[in-house]
């Protein structure tokens, strides 16, 4: 799955770089993305100096040097290994509302070409959990409260030692902002995601499972492994 998704992303990057002076990408930060991003680092024939990178969400309230920050995770996993043209981190401090507005402005400076995302245990995309997800959100970046399932997933993913260490709020790109990208690659490994994938593929298209909206996106490709595929023989 990691090899297949990385190869497809790299092929799309090369194609765009042949006809554009720059490519703008948004990356999810989660352990589920590790294999894809590691494989993407190894792909050849990509001029990363023409690629500008963003990420799609960040916790509010962590120390600036907190290792759980998504900006740090992406630096360690991807950004520090490749000569990107620019990397734009979400920095919520000192004013999260102002940070959301500034990040939205930066995203809007030019079209977004590619988004690499996942699906959460509760069906979220970015930090658009079911209680706050809005398929018609007028904002591009906003402050959200994280629901209990989302916060517990961060512990289960070993990003935090205890539930009460997980921040209650975050900044996130909204669903309409993500869907306006030209191409989406959604990578979802692991048995804990099988229920969310089943609801995304076979349940109603509703904010009770935010990722269900991806079924309406012809420009989105879903990558699963045997454990996350609800239709695979077990």
UniProtKB/TrEMBL annotation:
Return the Pfam families for the record. Answer: Glucosamine_iso (PF01182)
- Domain of life assignment: Bacteria
Keywords, comma-separated and alphabetical? Isomerase
Glucosamine/galactosamine-6-phosphate isomerase domain location: 4-218
InterPro entries xref list = Glc/Gal-6P_isomerase, Glucosamine6P_isomerase, NagB/RpiA_transferase-like
Q: Does the keyword Flavoprotein apply?
A: no
User: What GO MF annotations does this protein's record show?
Assistant: glucosamine-6-phosphate deaminase activity; identical protein binding; isomerase activity
Q: Which GO terms describe its cellular component?
A: cytoplasm
Q: What GO biological process terms does the UniProt entry carry, in alphabetical order?
A: carbohydrate metabolic process; glucosamine catabolic process; N-acetylglucosamine catabolic process; N-acetylneuraminate catabolic process
- Does the keyword Isomerase belong to this entry? yes
What is the name of this protein?
Answer: 6-phosphogluconolactonase/glucosamine-6-phosphate isomerase/deaminase
The species is Microvirga lotononidis
